[in-house]
């Protein structure tokens, strides 16, 4: 079984295993360069005791998979949509509302409910563009500076 990694808010990787997200517990790596010890990403909020050990790319030792919360597949799908939004923001010069409208058309209500508000997503698009230097020109600023 191939391991699936998704990006978190800060650019790190989370492992998705049996519909639950796991994060790296410490700095120790296995022979494949992957994190060796992982704990449930909900540990900080719910003190979830679930942990796994990655021996290699395909070998997962399940030390404790007793989660004290339910899996939220809609939240995972919402995170994938959020990553698509940020990827499109870097590559296009469309206004944030146009990007959001183009991607909101094909998602379910459950996923839309798990996403942040449209204002938060638009702000995140602007921040991402400023960070990578691909912000579209500010026409109001250009008009005022020529006077």
TrEMBL record:
Q: Residue ranges of the FLYWCH-type domain?
A: 5-69
Region labeled Disordered — which residues? 59-83, 127-147
Pfam families per the UniProt record, alphabetical: FLYWCH
Xref: Gene3D superfamilies: 2.20.25.240
* Molecular-function GO term, any one: zinc ion binding
Q: Which residues form the signal peptide?
A: none
Keyword terms, alphabetized? Metal-binding, Zinc, Zinc-finger
Question: What protein does this entry describe?
Answer: FLYWCH-type domain-containing protein
Q: Which organism is it from?
A: Oedothorax gibbosus
Which taxonomic lineage is given here? Eukaryota, Metazoa, Ecdysozoa, Arthropoda, Chelicerata
